[in-house]
Amino acid sequence: MDSKIPPANTQRLLLGEAILSATDVRVRRTLLKICGKNREAHLIACSELLTDPAPSASSASGTGQKRKRFEVCMKCKKEYNVEQNNDEACAWHHGQLLFINDDHDIWIDYDDRVYGPMDSKENQEMWPTAFLWGCCDKRADAKGCIISAHMPRPSKKACNRATSPILVE
Ligand SMILES: [Zn+2]
Ligand SMILES: [Zn+2]
């Protein structure tokens, strides 16, 4: 049965598995390498990952250069498409996860002599709903209490334009 599968197909499946299980860094390096060697791959990556300049930015800077299509928002920490960003696209909390949510089951038998302080970073990461936001007193999984446009993280390039990224093998 297995012998009927063409080797090319088997290899394609294996490659799919390898891509899915590879680390982010490994996939990024591989993609950069492919784009550097193959013009068509370069163009596909450009159309997937870049977009036209923002209408206001093109007239202000005058460069008319493309920009990244996807950014990660400083406020909600999510990835967003810059073409779909608007004044109501983002919901975030301006406070921190500070208060203990007394209703949460995790605190019933919690012994801080065994597990450490209740409001530790580890606990916040492990049981976010056991905490409340300092800004609005809502549970950690509640929708953000501030609505705004997504805000991109300041790009590293802007801080250090002279250096180009170096790929270490
Ligand atoms: Zn809030
Ligand atoms: Zn956002």
UniProtKB/TrEMBL annotation:
Protein name: C2H2-type domain-containing protein
